[in-house]
Specification:
The chain contains six helices and six strands. With about 140 residues, the protein is of the alpha+beta class. It has two domains: about 25 residues, no CATH class; about 110 residues, Kinase associated domain 1, KA1 (TATA-Binding Protein, 2-Layer Sandwich), CATH 3.30.310.80. Strands 2-3-4-5-1-6 form a six-stranded antiparallel sheet. α1 packs across α2.
């Protein structure tokens, strides 16, 4: 019985790492719902490199740099990040259920980066967007 459970866990882990959406949903790492919510994302574009924008957003996360004084907002925690696929998922937004997820997507443009912030929670999306857009506006020029 124990071997069966270990085998099942191993198969799920391999499937999740390999990109199987069903396994990712089972393990709680799917971002499909956040990608779908991008239709109603809050967006803003900045004159910065992908790496600079990505790293600047990570500085707002309390479990990345342990500095919650940067934006004046209650910090959030990074749940997932993937530089190759261009997204960060955060949780722990003040005033929301701890497990509310907000997706931050980075789209490279010819002259900068567009940031898209999506969530199934409008309140969480707005709080994260406000903190991120304010912080990035202090560091980089906004694009039209």
């Amino acid at each position: 019985m124990r071997k069966s459970i270990l085998l099942l866990c191993g198969v799920l882990l391999v499937a999740a790492i390999g990109g199987c959406e069903t396994a990712k949903r089972f393990m709680g790492t799917s971002i499909a719902h956040l990608e779908t919510a991008r239709e109603e994302a809050m967006t803003m574009s900045f004159d910065c490199s992908f790496a600079d924008c990505f790293d600047s957003v990570l500085t707002l996360s309390r479990n990345e740099y342990m500095d919650d004084s940067l934006s004046g907002e209650e910090p959030f925690e990074t749940f997932q990040k993937d530089r190759v696929r261009g997204y960060i998922v955060v949780m722990g937004i003040a005033g929301n259920i701890d497990t509310t997820e907000v997706g931050i997507f980075f789209i490279e443009l010819p002259n900068g980066v567009r940031i898209e912030i999506s969530s199934l929670s409008t309140a969480a999306k707005e709080k994260v967007a406000k903190a991120i857009f304010r912080e990035l506006s202090l560091k980089f020029n906004r694009l039209p």
